[in-house]
Specification:
It is a single chain. The protein has about 250 residues and is of the alpha/beta class. The chain has helices at about 15-25, 40-45, 70-80, 90, 95-110, 130-140, 170-190, 210-215, 230-245, and strands at about 5-10, 30-35, 50-55, 80-85, 115-120, 155, 200, 220-225. It is globular and about 50 Å long. It has a single domain, classed as Aldolase class I (TIM Barrel). It is about 40% helix and about 15% strand. β2, α2 and β3 form a beta-alpha-beta unit.
Length: about 250
């Protein structure tokens, strides 16, 4: 698992630590990042031997009158190494690029690896979605030093291809096109002599489509939601990645 990274986003699941511990033990392998609910993170640290832990969000302030927020500094003190930022579900609740940018800076300052999510709600015939993703990238990375770029993971998640309301599944070719486009945005902004970040796919990944995104889409890994909550399904995806890395 040295080449590809697989990130599990458990979202607001499972309900109990007993379930979380069972799921974590079944997924405890090199190259795996488990982004669990904050309430489980401290105890899961004692369970995992190979997999890394990630959080699902972080606030940009260290301490203060921010009811319900969890700061990046708190995560750092817990030993958390990764954090998801700008997820489409957070954006749907009103989070904008400026706020994501503030969180990104706070996380990078503490040497936590941010998993920056970008992606359009729909693929329109006028290709406006291209501009939406460009805007997300540029605004979320505003005033970020180019030396920090390689310390970021960018997860492309086409909202229209995710979950029960998905219009259809995205194709590996569509991801490859977007991955190349994102790299061009970064090269135009930071220069051609930069170390690019990992760009991974995060749209209803399963064992049926994982191989095509790896081979035809050339993804650096996955951000997995629903399938990460089923140990059998999650490990099937892991095995596909492991086979390619041999």
């Amino acid at each position: 698992m040295s080449k590809k990274i697989i990130i599990a986003n458990w979202k607001m699941n499972p309900l109990t630590f007993v379930e979380a511990e069972k799921l974590a033990k079944a997924s405890d392998k090199d190259g795996i990042v488990l982004c669990a609910p904050f309430v489980f993170l401290n105890e899961l640290k004692k369970v995992l031997k190979k997999a890394k832990l990630g959080a699902q969000d972080a606030f940009f302030g260290d301490v203060g009158a921010f009811t319900g927020e969890i700061s990046a500094k708190m995560l750092k003190n817990l030993g958390i190494e990764y954090v998801i930022l700008g997820h489409s579900e957070k954006r749907a609740l009103g989070e904008n690029n400026d706020l994501v940018n503030k969180k990104l800076k706070a996380v990078l300052d503490l040497k936590i690896t941010p998993i920056l999510c970008v992606g359009e709600k729909e693929r329109d015939e006028n290709h406006e979605y291209i501009n939406i993703v460009r805007e997300q990238i540029l605004e979320c990375l505003a005033n970020i030093k180019k030396e920090a770029l390689s310390k970021i993971i960018i997860a492309y998640e086409p909202v229209w291809a995710i979950g029960k309301n998905a219009l259809r599944g995205a194709t590996a070719e569509e991801f490859l096109e977007m991955s190349i486009f994102i790299k061009k945005i970064l090269s135009d902004k930071f220069g051609i002599k930069i170390k690019l970040p990992k760009i991974i796919y995060g749209g209803s990944v399963n064992s049926q489509n994982a191989l095509s995104f790896l081979e035809q889409g050339n993804t650096d890994g996955f951000l997995i939601g629903g399938a990460s909550l089923d140990a059998k399904k999650f490990n099937e995806i892991i095995k596909i990645c492991e086979a390619l890395n041999k």
